[in-house]
Amino acid sequence: MDIERLIVKTLIPVLLALFCAAPAAARNISNHDIQLAVENEFKHDAGVSYHLVDVRVHDGIVTLEGSVDNILAKERAAEVARTVKGVKSIVNRLIVRPVLRTDDMIKQDVNWALLYDPTTESYEIQVMVKDGRVILDGTVDSWQERNLAATVARGVLGVKDLENRIKVDYKTRRSDLEIAADVRSRLQWDIWVHSPSLKVKVKNGKVILSGKVGSAAERSRAHRIAWVTGVKAVDSGKLEVDWLLAEAMRRKEEHPVRSDKEIKQAVKSAFLYDPRVFSFNPDIRVNAGVVTLTGVVTSPIAKQAAEQDASNTVGVWRVRNHLKVRPVKPVSDENIRENVDKALAGDPYLDRREISVGARNSKVYLYGEVDSPFEKTRAGVLASKVKGVVDVDNFLTVKSLVSWRSFKTDWAIRQDIHDELWWSPFVDADQVHVSVRDGVATLTGTVDSYTERGAAIENAYEGGAREVKNHLKVENDYR
Amino acid sequence: MRRRVVNGIFKMITASVWLLAVASCGTTMTAVRERAYDSGPVIEDEKIELALLGRLDRDEFVCAAGMDLEVDNGVVMLKGSVDSLTEKRRVFDLIESTRGVVSIVDHLRVEPAGRSDAGIKEDVEKALLIDPVTEDYKVTVGVKQAAVTLEGTVNSFQEKRIAERVAGDVRGVEMVVNRLDVEYDMPRPDREIREEVERRLEMDPYLDRGLIWIGVDAGRVTLKGKVGSLAQKGRAYYDAWVFGVQEVDDTGLKVVRGLGDPMIRKEPPFVRTVEEIKRAVELALTYDPHCDVAKVDVRVKPAGQVILSGSVDNLEAVYAAGEAAYNTLGVWVVDNHLKVLPERMIEDLALAANLKEAFERDPVLAGRNLHALVRNGRVSLYGSVDYDYLRQRAGALAGRIFGVVAVDNYIAKKGISEIEADREILGAVAEEIYADPFLDFDEIDLNVEDGTVTLRGAVDSRHELIEAVECAFRGGAREVRSRLTVEGSPDPYLGYLYVADGRIDRM
Fold first, then answer.
1. pLDDT category of residue B40 using cuts at 50, 70 and 90
2. Residue, of A80 and B273, whose pLDDT is higher
3. CA of B342: how far to CAs of A63, A101, B50, B353, in Å?
4. Number of cross-chain residue pairs from A and B with Cβ atoms under 8 Å apart
5. In this predicted model, what pLDDT tens digit does every residue of A250-298 receive, in sequence order?
6. What is the mean pLDDT of residues B358-387?
7. In this prediction, what percent of chain B has a pLDDT beyond 70?
8. Of residues A112, A102, A97, the one with CA closest to residue A66
9. Contact A38, A57 (CB under 8 A)
């Protein structure tokens, strides 16, 4: 028996070595691996009905097939897939099979949604609906506004497809040189884009991006950022996704020290391109990387957007959000309650949930039970977009799921967290050490930014931890 | 810190109680191990009886009030009555997996609330029609005085068994007479059958292949040798029904009455190659009637990690495939990426109606406050019930309805169940572990603090680990923490885990 034990004892280290070597080495990602990783991400995302989505991968190109019940879920699926390492691009063939509604009902609701959204209310947009397909027409001032109008329309129950015919009419003319400088600066200041090899060329108002980025998500973000004032088209087809190279570069990357003055300018420029924020022109003060926002906006959504924009800027450590919400004209609480009810009932994710709404002194209270944190957040966002609302207290509780089949040992949880970290293009898995005891994961090590730290924590939960203890340090954080 | 000291003292007390309780049977650990296959000292009938009464009493599902049992030379005589065939099956499961029980003499009557035969017939037919396995078959259902007779032809013994189960789970049924014929597409030579039975027994982690002799003659399989419990005997019988088998005779398979641990494999946990594991998992899937093995992609990575992907016809197949993979020797982790893609879509409204009817047909779930929301084939269950097993049963039932692609179980448990004193829990868990023939009881050490059971020591396999955790819950643990080491596992911490407010499903 002793000999048996001896064999076992010598075998274990060998096996262990086999096990540990696999993720550490520059793992060759097969199409099958990518497929499983994408499916895994879908499973963790309550906004995608993963059970109906089929994922095929060829040469890093992900094809999504199957059906979802709303157009937002279709887009969300693509967005989630883009954040998986090794994914080069997405072919989205998902079919939207929404709840059946008449075109008139949909049209009415799209009009209502555009009119009641604090940002799009002033736009002049014509809405047509045919067989569940929405066509938007009109003229707006920027590409961002055009996009926002489409997003609002997509959130209406019953919409199968959307065609955006809205034209952009820039108030100012800009030379190619000016545009190029603007795009470069915007890309440089975005925390999600960090590829030094990214090149920008502008010809007759058309922006051509080339070089290499780390993920499909990074490319789509760069594409969106490039739509600055004066741009007629953006071509990101020459932007190659190469995660290995990007990872190597990121490790070598120096963190340039940014002056407060520069940061302030960058935040200001970020506001300029966010139609939810720019008209309020919030006051920005920067002190040692801490941004303080003051001023008045008309909706909680603008307040949140401003904070988000600021924290997406390179060099910003923290945002102190002192923006005040003051509606243009007061709306009665009764009216607010009705409109929040209507917004929730007309949402493709929440239409069947029983959420009770209270309103007092322009503040909205949400009560009830929902199935996931995703639904809870969504209800909060929808409520804060309603006209006249100053603040939202979200008291929704998330029901706990009984999962009988889950039986995960600490070892398996740790492995899954490792996998999650490795597949995320936002985290450098080598810098994060994971240990798991009694289902509680402890993360240690040093990461580059707060966003990376946040992503790592999320990964730990997705890997199956019931609780995450975060001991990750952020590099260059002197405070 | 203080906690730790208290814990330590408690543990010392625990250890001594434990030793007294268990080791009073007179053998030291190594002695038991070496004499594993000897009968060892025979477990007294009185002890078996006490263990059975304790187990039945603690089980949430079984109402022991109407039942009576006697033990004579390891033979359990059951008398009295229960409410449903489902409950009776549960009673049998418990008794069969109790150490020392050699056979059961069944005088247990099923006395459900009376229903008309016509009503039962209609329900059985409907139940067979929505089950993903039986929906393809033409099964004739006859009902006479609450006894259901099934007639027709199926393609495997496994399917035959599932049909019987589906019929038995209908409210009002007292008995199922299974006259289904198993018909194979083509006959198989005895040698091939023998080899396949051998492989099946060998890869079953609950069995010890070395103790079972297999004979095959004209499609008739004979099993002889020793097993450690009735549960193991049942497994061997089930495993032996490979394609081509006409009959299985397991009368020569004797259940050992000794206290030794014949259930536990004694050979060293040797490493299996990736290819061997892959073939074994595929073989296991072939015999699962829920699964179309051709649609499941099995990949095996070093150190026993199995990845399942592809799409199957029904949700039960996803669970069954995962279970089959786990029940293969050498497998440590299963990544189940299987998806459900029903051959034909069923409208959400129709699915919701099927689900509602299925709940009403069930002898245990009928009349409970449960409701479901169906969206694109995905079912969310809501409501509140008194016991964990009811939540579990509702979820499992929903997963066995054709057309359901996913189940989210949000059913809540009413109130908080009474928490027993730590001492009570300790005694009960010790009893459960002792009675469990799948566990090597003197290798597991436990202590209890504030309802949390901590398991320490060593087990031989992943299955023993799960079994031990289950025992802790059955004994009344609120939470279970495992510090068990699993011999031969690829990681020293494989046996470490924490489970709260939930039991492991092993249906």
1. low
2. A80
3. 21, 26, 48, 18
4. 126
5. 666 666 678 999 999 999 999 999 999 988 999 999 998 899 999 999 9
6. 90
7. 87
8. A97
9. yes
Percent of chain B's residues with pLDDT above 90:
44
Chain length of chain A: 479
Residues A215, A87 contacting (CB under 8 angstroms):
yes
A440-451 mean pLDDT: 89
User: Closest by alpha carbon to B48, among B196, B257, B245?
Assistant: B257
Closest CA to A15 of B301, B271, B490, B274: B490
Q: Do A8 and B487 touch (CB under 8 A)?
A: yes
Element housing A257 (H / E): none
**B303-334 pLDDT, tens digit each:** 788 999 998 989 989 988 998 888 888 888 88
Residue B271 has pLDDT above 90, yes or no: no
For the whole prediction, is pTM greater than 0.90?
Answer: no
- Extract the tokens encoding B115: 């229903």
Q: Which residue of B has its CA nearest to A435?
A: B493
pLDDT confidence tier of residue A402, bands split at 50, 70 and 90: low
pLDDT in tens, B255-270: 887 655 544 545 545 5
Chain A, nearest residue to B269 by Cα? A8
**Smallest Cα–Cα separation from B184: which of B163, B165, B207, B156?**
B156
Compute CA distances A48 → A72, A94, A147, A383, B347, whole Å: 9, 11, 21, 22, 20
Task: Please give the pLDDT value at position A17.
Answer: 43
Give Cα B136 distance to the centre of its chain: 26
- Check CB contact under 8 Å for B380 and A15: no
Q: What share of chain B is helix, strand, coil (3-state, %, to 5)?
A: 40, 25, 35
For tokens 């966002």, the residue is A381
The beta-carbon neighbor of A438 closest among B271, B340, B481 is B481
Query: Is the predicted pLDDT of residue A4 greater than 50, yes or no?
Result: no
Mutate to test the interface with B, among A5, A99, A411 (most CBs of B within 10 A): A411
> Which region, left, alpha or beta, applies to residue B274 given φ > 0 means left and ψ of -120 to 50 means alpha?
alpha
Name chain A contacts of B469, Cβ cutoff 8 Å. 407
Torsion angle of the four alpha carbons B231, B237, B240, B242, in this order, in degrees rounded to the nearest 10 = -100
ipTM above 0.90, yes or no: no
What's the rounded mean pLDDT across residues A193-212?
A: 89
What token pair was written down for A49? Answer: 């009905």
Q: How far is B410 from chain A (nearest CA, A)?
A: 5
* A131 burial level (CB within 10 Å; 0-12, 13-18, 19+): exposed
As a whole number of angstroms, the distance between CA A74 and CA B220 comes to 55
Is 90 exceeded by the pLDDT of residue A132?
yes
* B302: DSSP letter: T
Name which of A202, A204, A195 is nearest A244 in CA terms. A195
In chain A, which residues have their Cβ closer than 8 Å to the Cβ of B268?
4, 7-8
Task: Work out the number of other CB atoms within 10 angstroms of the CB of residue B86.
Answer: 22
The residues facing B76 across adjacent strands are B71, B104
Across the interface, whether the CB atoms of A402 and B309 are under 8 A apart is answered no
Burial category of A171 from C-beta neighbours within 10 Å (exposed 0-12, middle 13-18, buried 19 and up)? exposed
Phi, psi of A326 (to 5 degrees): -135, 110
Cα nearest neighbour of B406 on chain A: A51
Dmax of chain B from CA atoms? 70
- Backbone Cα Rg of chain A: 24
